[in-house]
Design brief:
Blueprint (H helix, E strand, L loop, with lengths): L1 E13 L5 E3 L21 E2 L2 E2 H9 L4 E4 L23 E3 L5 E3 L5 H11 L2 E5 L7 H12 L5 H8 L10 E4 L12 H13 L11 E4 L7 H12 L13 E8 L15 H28 L6 E9 L18 H16 L4 E7 L9 E4 L2 E4 L1 H9 L5 E9 L3 E4 L2 E4 L1 E7 L5 E7 L6 E7 L6 E8 L17 E2 L3 E4 L2 E6 L3 E8 L1
Parallel strand pairs: 1-21, 2-5, 2-13, 5-8, 8-9, 9-10, 10-11, 11-12, 12-13
Antiparallel strand pairs: 1-16, 3-4, 6-7, 14-15, 16-19, 17-18, 19-20, 20-26, 21-25, 22-23, 22-26, 24-25
The structure holds alpha-L-arabinofuranose.
Length: about 500
């Protein structure tokens, strides 16, 4: 098989946010995962777990979406500010019926983002919140002058406003976010977004419209028709900066998703086939978006994606806690390659979710922490952030799989960074066979190559007792000469090459 790369042809810019994450008040994502509180015996900085924050910094988390998810459309931000002992307690009805004590709120979220050094993406409440509530939240977070909300923020100990980079106007409003019709939501979006004011002209908030559940193109079309209908505020800059898309890889069905760590080879290839479907979903939605926005000014944000398996036995079903194997790593690798290839439109991706929920990069248990195979993929792909996608394609790849569950055996993407170093990410999804790949550059000779790999059995995963069973290692099974690199990939493996030309 050959991978052809035209190192002279840059196609689009890969925004760092494509490698973003999602954190919801769900199970042990926030509480116990990211935040333990200042009084905890677990090492923390202003309540944020030090071990987790340090590990996340290594993968260069570029943006963190919060507070949901389903939770966002039931979240009333005023419950989460002021002295902690006075904050309202509520039942988290969506997720496990546990008590939410609101000890992690707006101030804690911005503190966390500051510690991570990442951009902020706050998701507002359209489902059960008012325009006024949303507008006052934005004022509280971003207004620098004298105003009731700015004064309240100061009273609560934060003199200066924060930067809200992205603001989501509702979440999954076709379902959990209010069960709205597309036309109804489209009008709500027009209305609510009006009051997401840009108080700081230098840092306008990017407003995100709720897009479809995966390939529900009818939602996409109808929402956009309503949003852009006369008189269309769309003409004004900053009306709609982003359009969200959610897609989960559910291996079998929503009723019987399948085990996260004990699965057949058919189920492995089914997951891969379903992961590759992300390509169609992006293209399908992009085609419709392009009818309204041919210049691609509106970014597509795949702000929830990942594998959704059955919960780990013995855990609260509402906590969505699941293990994470090499299969999940392959899904992540393929998905991120697809995002790179669509980086002309896809400007953000948020893996669901960052810690202890669904396809996490980190799992915790009390004071223990383990990095999942998916974590290592994000680490190996971090070089793509803020790089330019290069023109590349495979020749001679084959389908692999069982029955209907087939997918091409290798997937790839290639970028070049500001220093001219080329990053190639390749995944051999074949569970049994090696794959030899010849990589050809068009004109330039290869001066140096450095390689990293993640390899294992499709069902391998890390545990608190065996945290390094699957881990990134140096990759050395390659040679290079002139314009060609020859690579030999193990079965079920992911390889990153850093190439100096
Ligand atoms: O990530 C879990 C849930 O999946 C989110 O809360 C919701 O937006 C989606 O349905």
């Amino acid at each position: 098989m050959k991978l052809h790369i035209n190192e002279n042809r840059k196609l689009s810019h890969i925004e760092p946010e494509v490698y973003g994450h999602f954190s919801e008040h769900l199970g042990r994502c926030i509480y116990g995962g990211l935040y333990v509180g200042e009084k905890s015996e677990i090492a923390n900085d202003k309540g944020m777990r030090k071990d987790v924050v340090d590990a996340l910094k290594e993968i260069k988390v570029p943006v963190l979406r919060w507070p949901g998810g389903n939770f966002a459309d039931e979240y009333h931000w005023m419950d989460g500010i002021g002295p902690k002992e006075k904050r309202k307690k509520m039942i988290n009805t969506h997720w496990g019926g546990v008590i939410e004590d609101n000890s992690f709120g707006t101030h804690e979220y911005f503190e966390l983002c500051e510690q991570l050094g990442c951009k902020t993406y706050v998701n507002g409440n359209v489902g059960s919140g008012t325009v006024r509530e949303m507008s006052e939240w934005v004022e509280y977070m971003t207004f620098n002058g004298v105003s009731p909300m700015a004064e309240l923020r100061k009273e609560n100990g934060h003199e200066k406003p924060w930067t809200v980079d992205y603001f989501g106007v509702g979440n999954e409003n076709w379902g959990c976010g209010g069960n709205m019709t597309a036309d109804y939501y489209g009008n709500k979006f027009r209305n609510y977004q009006t009051y997401v004011r840009n108080y700081d002209g230098n840092k306008p908030i990017k407003k995100v419209c709720c897009g479809p559940n995966a390939d529900d193109y009818r939602w996409t079309k109808e929402v956009l028709e309503t949003c852009f209908r006369h008189p269309a505020p769309a003409a004004a800059h900053g009306f709609m900066d982003g359009f969200s898309v959610h897609y989960y890889v559910v291996v079998n069905s929503w009723e019987d998703k399948g085990s996260a760590k004990d699965f057949s080879k058919e189920e492995y290839y089914r997951a891969m086939r379903k992961a590759y479907y992300m390509d169609d979903i992006i293209s399908g939605n992009d085609q419709i978006l392009s009818q309204f926005d041919p210049e691609k000014k509106i970014a597509m944000l795949v702000d929830e994606w990942g594998c959704w398996h059955d919960v780990e036995e013995g855990t609260n079903p509402g906590f969505l806690y699941q293990q994470n194997t090499m299969r999940d790593a392959q899904v992540a690798g393929a998905t991120l390659n697809i995002f790179n290839k669509h980086s002309d439109r896809v400007k953000m991706g948020c893996l669901a979710q960052i810690v202890n929920v669904l396809q996490s990069v980190i799992l915790t248990e009390d004071d223990k922490m383990v990095l999942t195979p998916t974590y290592h993929i994000f680490h190996m792909y971090r070089f793509h952030q803020d790089s330019d996608l290069l023109d590349s394609f495979l020749e001679g790849e084959e389908n692999v799989g069982i029955g209907e569950d087939v997918a091409t055996n290798v997937n790839e993407s290639v970028s070049v960074d500001k220093d001219g170093v080329v990053t190639i990410t390749l995944n051999n999804i074949d569970a049994d066979k090696n794959n030899e790949i010849e990589i050809d550059f068009r004109e330039k000779e290869v001066k140096d190559v450095e390689g990293f790999e993640l390899a294992g059995n499709m069902m391998d995963y890390n545990t608190f007792d065996d945290p390094t069973k699957v881990q990134e290692a140096k990759f050395e099974d390659f040679s290079f000469d002139g314009k060609v690199i020859k690579v030999n990939m193990k079965p079920c493996s992911c390889v990153t090459l850093r190439v100096t030309l």
